[in-house]
Design brief:
By secondary structure, the protein is mainly α. Helix content is 59%, strand content 7%. The protein has a two-stranded antiparallel sheet. The model has no long low-confidence stretch (mean pLDDT 91).
C-alpha cells in the first residue's frame, strides 16, 4: 500500500490518507482482515505527525472501513463492499443535490455544471 501525500492539494493530509485507504479497500487492493500499518509507522513513512494519521484512522473507523483493536492494531473491516458503496453514493447524491440547487439559483447551466463535475471526477 503506497500512500502519496500532495502538499499542493487543497485537502488536508488526513483526508488524503482517508481517501486513498478507502480507495484501496473499494478496489480490492486491501481486503477484509488485512492489517494496516501502525499509526507511528505510517507517520514515519509519510514524514507527518502521528496525530494526523490518528485523525485519518479515526475517520476510517467511524465510516466503517477499518477496525482498531487495542494492542493489536488497525485492520480492514469485514464490511460489505456494496453497503459501503451505497453509503458513499447516498452522500454523493446529497452533495450533488446541493450543487444543483446552487446552479439553478444562480443561473449556472446544466452543461456548465456537468463539465465542472467531469473535471473534478477526472482529477
Amino acid at each position: 500500500m503506497e500512500i502519496i501525500i500532495s502538499n499542493s492539494s487543497d485537502k488536508p493530509i488526513y483526508e488524503q490518507i482517508c481517501m486513498q485507504i478507502k480507495s484501496f479497500i473499494m478496489d480490492g487492493t486491501l481486503s477484509a482482515g488485512e492489517a494496516l500499518p501502525s499509526m507511528r509507522a505510517l507517520a514515519r513513512d509519510l514524514h507527518i505527525s502521528v496525530i494526523t494519521v490518528q485523525r485519518a484512522y479515526e475517520d476510517l473507523t467511524r465510516d466503517g472501513f477499518i477496525e482498531t483493536v487495542s494492542g493489536k492494531g488497525s485492520f480492514v473491516a469485514s464490511q460489505n463492499r456494496e453497503f459501503i458503496q451505497e453509503e458513499q453514493l447516498r452522500i454523493a447524491e446529497e452533495l450533488l443535490q446541493k450543487a444543483a440547487e446552487i446552479g439553478r439559483t444562480h443561473g449556472i447551466g446544466f452543461e456548465q455544471m456537468s463539465n465542472i463535475l467531469k473535471l473534478f471526477y477526472e482529477e
